[in-house]
Amino acid sequence: MPLDKAIQFHKVCAFLSAFGGLVHTWAHYNHYAQVPATYQAVYGPTVWISGVIIIVAMQLLYSTSFEAVRRGEFEMFWYTHHLFVLFFLALLFHGRNSWNPNYWKWFLVPGTLYFIERITREVKASKPVGLISATHMNNKYAKVFCLELEKTGPIRRHQEGQYIFLNCPMITKFQWHPFTISSPPEQRTLTLHIRNMVCILAFQCKRQKGEEEGKENKSGHKTTQKIQTAKPIS
């Protein structure tokens, strides 16, 4: 699935989850208001604890996902978005006697596949990839960086339309940004054309490369700038 389509699908799922969660929460509060004794006897007190955890996690996830927050405070968006782990764990225990009798059936297969995919991604992302060049391609209509990477390790093969997650450790070790691969599979190097200010990532990599080349000139020792990439994703 192309990156833009994946993001759109993700937003649709988020909207449906928010709508379903709102209706679900209203129904339970309405039920408790009408028959509190029966409700307490059936579900017990722990359902409120897991429910509050889910609501708080969703509140933080959604409130930091607006475009103004993503562009102005990306770190806040990035780190709070990882509350999805807490969200899904709380769902497993959101039910009678601290257990959701049905959710785990829906979670088992996709959750296992996602867990395996994350492990695979971390293993492949631990291998650094050499940065060949970072080129400014600015004009009056757009600001663009072109990153040219060594086609080795996790990105030695790719197909048309795939994208990769890119990390520059000198900026942060924890942020990974998805970028569509712009070079054809038969090209010997891999290129990424990155628009707008998000390409500060590339600028920082290029600046660091220049600083290390300056050190090489003074010390006589060659240094190689490295960035990290995850496996290309369709």
From TrEMBL:
Topology versus the membrane, per the UniProt entry?
Multi-pass membrane protein
GO BP annotations listed? defense response; superoxide anion generation
Q: Which InterPro entries does the record cross-reference, listed alphabetically?
A: FAD-bd_8, FAD-bd_FR_type, Fe3_Rdtase_TM_dom, RBOH/FRE, Riboflavin_synthase-like_b-brl
Q: Where is this region: Disordered?
A: 211-234
Provide one Gene Ontology cellular component.
Answer: NADPH oxidase complex
GO terms, molecular function: superoxide-generating NAD(P)H oxidase activity
Q: Where in the cell is it found?
A: Membrane
Q: Where is the FAD-binding FR-type domain?
A: 124-234
**Which residues span the membrane?**
12-29, 41-64, 76-95
Q: Which UniProt keywords apply?
A: Membrane, Oxidoreductase, Transmembrane, Transmembrane helix
Question: Pfam families attached here?
Answer: FAD_binding_8 (PF08022), Ferric_reduct (PF01794)
Put simply, this protein is called NADPH oxidase
Species annotation: Reticulomyxa filosa
Origin organism lineage: Eukaryota, Sar, Rhizaria, Retaria, Foraminifera
